[in-house]
Amino acid sequence: xxxxxxxxxxxxxxxxxxxxxxxxxxxxxxxxxxxxxxxxxxxxxxxxxxxxxxxxxxxxxxxxxxxxxxxxxxxxxxxxxxxxxxxxxxxxxxxxxxxxxxxxxxxxxxxxxxxxxxxxxxxxxxxxxx
Length: 130
Ligand SMILES: [Zn+2]
Hints:
By secondary structure, the protein is mainly α.
């Protein structure tokens, strides 16, 4: 995978999952309202994804070794990855009872993160978990 896309994908995915999980757990125990949790997920999917994409943009720009095209690829893939992965958490909230949806969300999020870190480790030639 290209450096710019890999940066955006791995950062957007990780941050999308961890931020959304933290928010779901917090809002669930604070409000116990599906609507509030859905609103929170949407806010992360849009506002937080934009702010992360901007952060990646500035960080890639400051490396001073990428073309504008590569920088924008990293920016866009960060936004899209975080947007998409944050939105996946809407599915269990819509389909299940809220406390069940939180558990399913945690399992889903941690599984995706393990797959990602396994693949990164594999790509770097390291032994998984080592
Ligand atoms: Zn870079």
